[in-house]
Design a protein that fits this description.
The chain has 507 residues and is of the alpha+beta class. The protein is built from eleven helices and 27 strands. E2 component of the 2-oxoglutarate dehydrogenase (OGDH) complex which catalyzes the second step in the conversion of 2-oxoglutarate to succinyl-CoA and CO(2).
C-alpha cells in the first residue's frame, strides 16, 4: 500500500510554496508524523509530517521546486511492503485482535486549529468544553480559541470520543496546530481509556528525544551568532523554525531601545494588607493587541487632532420627524450614526487624503469608503467595517450598524468583518464623553470622534439661544494630511450635519 504525501493547506491567501529542505531520502524508514520536508511560502515556513509509517519510496518534488496546494510531494510505502519488520509493528499486530473486537471501525481524527485569518498566526486556547473520555457528536463545540481580534469556536470534525487534549487551556497554538484527538467510530467510547494510556507512555520518550531544528533555522542562527537556547521554538515539540530566529534577532535589536526609553522598573512595594485585597488577572489577547496597536499608532504616525463643534438642531428635528415612518418601512431605528457616516463619506470625497494610507514612500488613495465603526464589547474595543458606505442608503447603513454591533457584542465577528477599513468613527458620546482625542487605527490616516450632545448657550443672529451642541474631534496622520485638509474635512462634516439637505444636493 502506498500513501501519498501532499502539500498541506498553506493559508487563506497562499497558493504555492517552495520545497526548501528534505529531511529524508528515498529508502529511509519514517514514523507517522515524523517531519519529512520543509516548505517555504512568502509568509511562513511549513513543516510536512509523514501521514503514515513506512519507507519513503519516492520524492516527487525536489528541493527548490515550486508546488501548489495539494500537489504530490512524495510516496510512502507501507512498512510490510518495504520488508521492514521491526519489533514495534509486531507488537502492534499482536494487539490488533483487541481493536477488532471493539468494532473494527475506529479511526483517530485530529482536531486542528481552524483558519484564523490572513494576518493571524496564533491563538490562545481559552476554554475546553469537553474533557478526555467524553463522547462528542460531529460539529459539537469542543473548545474556544481567542485570537487578538476575535473568538473562534472549534467544532468536532467527527463523532466519537475525545481521547487526547494536546493544547491545554491557556496554551498558545499556531495556525493549523493540533488541539486534540478524537477516536471516531462505533468502538470509540470503549477505546478511549486504552488509547490514552499508550499516548501517556510515549510522552516521556518524545520529551526526552532530541528535536532537530529546521536546517534553515540552524543556518540563520549561525549567521546571527545565536545559540539554540537563545531562541524559543514554535515548531513541533519545540523545534526552532526560521521565523523564530528572525523574531529573536528582532527582539534583541529592539530590547536596548526599549530599555532606554521605558525601563522595566519593578512594581512598587505593596503592603501585605493591600496585596491580600488585590486581584491579578492576565490580560486577554484582545486587550494585549489593543494596547500594542494603540501604542504602535502613537509611535509610528505623526498624529494630530483638530476640533470643531456642530449644532445638532437640524439633524435632531429631521430624525424626530421621520423616525416612526423610518422604523415602519425599514424595520430599523433611525439613529445619529447614519447621518455622521453619510457626512463623513461625503467629506472624504472632497479631502481624499484623509481616506488614504501610506505604504513605504507611496500614498494609496482609496476610491471607496469602508467605514470602521468602533464598538465597545465586554472584552474590549473592536472595529467592524461596513464596506462601500458611500454607496449605501440611510436604511442600509443603520441596518449594517445594528447587525455588526450585535455580532460584536456576542463575539461573533469574523476576521473579514474587521479588515479593510479606510476611515473610522468612534462614538464616545454614548458613554457621556464631552471631549477626547481619538487614536488612529493603523494604517488609516483619519478617525472622527463623536461626543455627548449637550445644551449650551450659543450666539445665533445676535441673540443667545440654547442649542444642542456636540464637539467633534478629527485625529489624523500629519505625514499625509495637512492642517488645511483636516480642517476642511471637519468643516464639511459640520456643514452637512447642520444642514442635512446638503447631502441630498451633494454640496
Amino acid at each position: 500500500m502506498t500513501t501519498e504525501v501532499r502539500v498541506p493547506t498553506l493559508g487563506e491567501s497562499v497558493t504555492e510554496a517552495t520545497v526548501a529542505t528534505w529531511f529524508k531520502k528515498p529508502g529511509d524508514a519514517v514514523a507517522q508524523d515524523e517531519m519529512l520536508c520543509e516548505l517555504e511560502t512568502d509568509k511562513v515556513t511549513v513543516e510536512v509530517p509523514a501521514p503514515a509509517a513506512g519507507t519513503l519510496a519516492e520524492i516527487v518534488a525536489k528541493e527548490g521546486e515550486t508546488v501548489g496546494v495539494d500537489a504530490l510531494l512524495a510516496n510512502i510505502s507501507a512498512a510490510g511492503e518495504a520488508g521492514q519488520e521491526t519489533p514495534e509493528p509486531k507488537a502492534a499486530t499482536k494487539e490488533a485482535p483487541a481493536a477488532a473486537a471493539s468494532g473494527g471501525e475506529e479511526a483517530a481524527v485530529d482536531v486542528m486549529v481552524p483558519t484564523l485569518g490572513e494576518s493571524v498566526s496564533e491563538a490562545t486556547v481559552s476554554t475546553w468544553f469537553k474533557k478526555v473520555g467524553d463522547t462528542v457528536a460531529q460539529d459539537e463545540m469542543l473548545c474556544e480559541l481567542e485570537t487578538d481580534k476575535v473568538s473562534v469556536e472549534v467544532p468536532a470534525p467527527a463523532a466519537g470520543t475525545l481521547t487526547e487534549i494536546s493544547a491545554e487551556e491557556g496554551a498558545t497554538v499556531q495556525a493549523s496546530a493540533k488541539l486534540g484527538v478524537i477516536s471516531a467510530g462505533a468502538g470509540a467510547t470503549a477505546a478511549a481509556a486504552p488509547a490514552a494510556a499508550p499516548a501517556a507512555a510515549e510522552a516521556p520518550a518524545a520529551a526526552s528525544k532530541d528535536v532537530a531544528n529546521a536546517p534553515s533555522a540552524e543556518k540563520a542562527m549561525a549567521e546571527a551568532g545565536l545559540s539554540a537556547d537563545q531562541v524559543k521554538g514554535s515548531g513541533r515539540d519545540g523545534r526552532i523554525m526560521k521565523e523564530d530566529v528572525a523574531s529573536a534577532i528582532s527582539a534583541a535589536k529592539s530590547a536596548p531601545a526599549a530599555t532606554t526609553s521605558a525601563p522595566a522598573a519593578p512594581r512598587a512595594p505593596v503592603s501585605a494588607d493591600d496585596a491580600s485585597r488585590e486581584e491579578r488577572v492576565k490580560m486577554t489577547r484582545l486587550r494585549q493587541t489593543i494596547a500594542r496597536r494603540l501604542k504602535d499608532s502613537q509611535n509610528t504616525a505623526a498624529m494630530l487632532t483638530t476640533y470643531n463643534e456642530v449644532d445638532m438642531t437640524e439633524v435632531m428635528a429631521l430624525r424626530n420627524e421621520y423616525k416612526d415612518l423610518f422604523l415602519k418601512k425599514h424595520g430599523v431605528k433611525l439613529g445619529f450614526m447614519s447621518f455622521f457616516t453619510k457626512a463623513c463619506a461625503h467629506a472624504l470625497k472632497e479631502v481624499p487624503e484623509v481616506n488614504a494610507e501610506i505604504d513605504g514612500t507611496d500614498i494609496i488613495y482609496k476610491n471607496f469608503v469602508h467605514m470602521g465603526i468602533a464598538a465597545g464589547t465586554p472584552t474590549g474595543l473592536v472595529v467592524p467595517v461596513i464596506r462601500d458606505v458611500d454607496a449605501m442608503s440611510f436604511a442600509g447603513i443603520e441596518k449594517a450598524i445594528a447587525e455588526k454591533g450585535a455580532r460584536a457584542r456576542d463575539g461573533k465577528l469574523s476576521m473579514a468583518e474587521m479588515q479593510g477599513g479606510t476611515f473610522t468613527i468612534s462614538n464616545g458620546g454614548v458613554y457621556g464623553s464631552l471631549m477626547s482625542s481619538p487614536i488612529l487605527n493603523p494604517p488609516q490616516s483619519g478617525i472622527l470622534g463623536m461626543h455627548k450632545i449637550q445644551d449650551r448657550p450659543m450666539a445665533i443672529n445676535g441673540k443667545v439661544e440654547i442649542r444642542p451642541m456636540m464637539y467633534l474631534a478629527l485625529s489624523y496622520d500629519h505625514r499625509i494630511v495637512d492642517g488645511k485638509g483636516a480642517v476642511t474635512f471637519l468643516v464639511r462634516v459640520k456643514e452637512a450635519l447642520e444642514d442635512p439637505r446638503r447631502l441630498l444636493m451633494d454640496l
